[in-house]
Amino acid sequence: MNIYIIFENANRELDYKLLLATNLLKNNNVIIGEKNEFRIKLNKLPPGLIIEKGLRKGSLNRFKSWKAQGHKIFCFDEESLTYYNDDQYYSSNCDKGIENYIDKVFASGQRHYKTLSKRFSKNQIIICGIVKYELIKKKFQKLYLDEVKKIKRKYGKFILVTSRFGNINFNRKKKINLSRLVYKDYMKDSKILFKDFEKIPEKLSYAYPNTNIVLRPHPSENKNFWKKTLKDKKNCYTEYYGSVFPWIIASEFVVQNRCSTGIEAFLIGKKCISFDPIYKKYFMKKLYFSIGKVFTKLSQFTKYEIEKKENFKKNNKYIKHYIHNYGFLNSVKIISKEIDKYSKLRTKNINLKYSVRDMLVNLRQTFFGGINAFENYSLHKIGTVDMKLVNNKVKKILLIEKLKKKISINQIGKKIFLLNYE
Question: Which of 40, 108, 189, 191 is deepest in the core (most CB within 10 A)?
């Protein structure tokens, strides 16, 4: 059958979706593509199984159209880890009635499963965990060896600070109005937190004068704000490219606020500090307390406080509740087994081609950027995706998985790629 995998942010999603793609090939064609381009072109492709990246508002008409064309629809939810509560989840994520057009939805853990169960039937929900976390298990950390070496050559010993304030430090002119009824005090709290958070790199540079401090912005943030803020700060730098995983692996430890990178640092085995002056009112405080130390004051960023061994006692009691594949369970195998049940769907030829127009657009974006602010924002958020990168990633995955079959990869759009066995 034809399997269509949609991604939005290559830095976050491409690696694990290529891992999934290589495990789904068998007798299938797998096409992986960037959401804005791929969703439009899906209307011209033969019926298959679509793996959508999320359940976001505004998806209902698109899902209706796909079902009418004969597609099966499976859905991830990239934001399933840190939603506030069930009301907020459904108010911001799901159109009313969308469950009628989805064949399967993937749950990240028991908490997410219970939330989904309020709208979806048990037969629709597959509890599989968070697929990208397969890549930070020991076996797949090899995927990032070259990138880790490159990062260490450039920065040596460094502390990684990850920012998540795309709702405050906007990377676009038009701001999104978030309903206070749904998001409670989210915006108010974020403004309070960001005011102190931006001072952390400088605090760390005083505590560790011989260690570099690397600030990684959220994909929706204005990275120029951070470059300007850190410009004259000793040993402080701003970087945003590639997956965050090699940056965490290469770092000495990680500092963040209410960010999934804290959980990723814990899973990789790195020390993690959660900075949160209003920590006690945060609904996920138990989870972030369990993965490392919570600092509530900027004055705590001293070498003495940071290196106290008792600050980093870890407790995995809450992890499994949020992440089903924490430990030995393999989410790729769970998903592959479920998709195999649909193997009787016919495989049809894909007629898409990498047109001259697509090539020219890619060249223009590579050398000159976007033609307006929104396109520049989109390009920044999507990240680098090209044939060389996809080929390199797939080769590494095949080596790690010890798969001897050769995979043919063809570019059939600006950021769309067809994979099948030769």
Answer: 108
| Phi, psi torsion values for 63, nearest 5 degrees | -65, -40
pTM given for the model: 0.91
Calculate the CA 353 to chain-centre distance: 28
Separation between Cα atoms, residue 263 and residue 368, nearest integer Å: 36
408: β partners:
420
CA 413, CA 395: separation in Å to the nearest integer?
Answer: 21
Q: Name the residue with tokens 């998985």.
A: 401
Crossing angle between the packed helical segments 10-24 and 331-340, to the nearest 10 degrees:
50
DSSP letter assigned to residue 403 = -
The tens-digit pLDDT sequence of the chain (422 residues) is: 999 999 999 999 999 999 999 999 988 999 999 999 999 999 889 999 999 998 888 899 999 999 999 999 999 998 888 888 888 888 877 899 999 999 999 999 999 999 999 999 999 999 999 999 999 999 999 999 999 999 999 999 999 999 998 877 776 555 555 555 445 677 788 888 999 999 999 999 999 999 999 999 998 888 889 999 999 888 999 999 889 999 999 999 999 999 999 999 999 999 999 999 988 878 788 888 888 889 999 999 999 999 886 656 566 767 888 999 988 899 999 999 999 998 877 777 888 888 899 899 898 888 888 888 777 777 777 888 999 999 999 999 999 998 888 899 999 999 999 999 98
